[in-house]
Amino acid sequence: MKIAEVSKRYGIPQETLRYYERVNVIPKIARENGIRNFTEDDCIWVQFAKCLRAAGLSVEAIIEYRRLTLIGDSTIEARCELLKSEREKLIDQKRSIDEALELLNYKVSRYEEAVKTGVLSWDKK
User: Are strands 31-32 and 35-36 parallel, antiparallel or unpaired?
Assistant: First the structure.
């Protein structure tokens, strides 16, 4: 699969895919006549990198994870710990987002009530 197809399939700019390859977020992509030809295995790495980035992992953390995978099974525990650590960060971030959403929902409800009644009032919240 050519880079344009991978870019479209995963919604990742071609330049980002080139960057990911250059810094080892994804494997080195085989080329045919100088044109990148992504395999399904390569696409699995692209999809995984996209997922991890969407979850907030840094490029550096993904590079470290990939480095560990290349070493082999002796790094299974380290990979697990890396992902668990990142998961905890994501859970904390979700908690913060949930709290902010709750407050925003409260504020919106007060304003919606004010639109109906013409009076803006705030409960103790």
Answer: antiparallel
